[in-house]
Amino acid sequence: EKGGHASFMEKEILEQPKAIADTLLGRTDEDGKLVLDEMNIDPDRLRAIDKIIIVACGTAFYSGLSAKYAIEHWTRIQTEVELAHEFRYRDPVVDDRTLVVSMSQSGETMDTLMAVKHAKELGALTVSICNTYGATIPRESDAALYTHAGPEIAVASTKAFTAQIAACYLLGLYLAQLRGGTYAEDAQAVMRELAEIPQHVDTVLGSMDRVREIARFMSDTRSVLFLGRHVGYPIALEGALKLKEIAYIHAEGFAAGELKHGPIALIEPGQPVFIVMPAQDSPYDLHAKVVSNIQEIRARGARTLVITERGDEAVRPFADEVIEVPRTSVMMMPLLSIIPLQVFACELATAKGLDVDQPRNLAKSVTVE
Ligand code: M6R
């Protein structure tokens, strides 16, 4: 069933163009307007929402963190992202104008289910973004928006992650369209950009030879750091999680702006650091700010592996390796920059001779609290 691939994880990484395309399929009408009738929620209830809380665990949590930037930007609705098990056992401010979006590939994660039940008790409107038709979480929620990534077998989540971001973007654009305002007009243009992503992911997947080579060289590495800013920050966290889970390497993701507040003390000669660059046309000079972070860590001996857009000359003087992805808009970039990090973890774990699909101590679906 692995279709000639060394692992299900490898196969699922390669399935991402289709997973994203299928998740977008049938969600717009002939004019390009978003249609999410399947959610079956009274549009007036959605118009009244004044806060969104995304609850999830693990990789699904990082997909929520990635989507938050775009959802707030497009909808102007305050959006929080919280680990489901933390949300459940504090005293969150939730009422009938709160939309609680749970994100779960399996739809069976107990921590996430308990968070959804709690949100419902508090009167929230609950929507499940899920990859498994008819699973417990979508059944317990007021509405479901399915990702169509197909079954994910490997314990380490890959195609579900990118499909979850795509589904969150659909929800964000739908809310923007429904509520009117500036971004309602832009929703169709953004949808067209989103529709091009599968093809760009395919391009990235076709250019991973060097990343695989780097991974094989690094199979003895003890620690890898990941830096990102803005939408690249959750990608750094997810890249680190992939490496911990399947390659058993100590890995940590940081917000690049946080470097000087502590983590820079970790930098010593030879320390490998992946940097997930913001798009060159990111707001507030973010790109230049991260270039100067790379400069700082390079000066302290870090080995810098930079994931950035094609044509980014500014990073070159400070990069030991440049890993390029096609140019897209700011919000689309995470869907591309995660790919090399997935490939890197998968290849490194394979090179170490580990069981990539069934890493030690982990289960595909965590059905206990
Ligand atoms: O099925 P879910 O999306 O609810 O699972 C959530 C996490 O357990 C899951 O993403 C986990 O972190 C993966 N092993 C990550 O690769």
Automatic annotation (TrEMBL):
Entry's localization field: Cytoplasm
Catalyzed chemical reaction(s): D-fructose 6-phosphate + L-glutamine = D-glucosamine 6-phosphate + L-glutamate
Active-site annotation: K364
Chief localization: cytoplasm
Domain SIS: start-end pairs: 42-181, 214-359
Highest rank taxon of the organism: Bacteria
Keywords in alphabetical order: Aminotransferase, Cytoplasm, Glutamine amidotransferase, Repeat, Transferase
MF annotations from Gene Ontology: carbohydrate derivative binding; glutamine-fructose-6-phosphate transaminase (isomerizing) activity
GO CC terms, sorted: cytosol
Enzyme Commission number(s): 2.6.1.16
GO BP of this protein: carbohydrate metabolic process; fructose 6-phosphate metabolic process; protein N-linked glycosylation; UDP-N-acetylglucosamine metabolic process
Subunit structure: Homodimer.
Function: Catalyzes the first step in hexosamine metabolism, converting fructose-6P into glucosamine-6P using glutamine as a nitrogen source.
Name recorded for this polypeptide: Glutamine--fructose-6-phosphate aminotransferase [isomerizing]
The organism of origin for this protein: Arsenicicoccus cauae
Residues of the full protein shown: 249 to 617 of 617
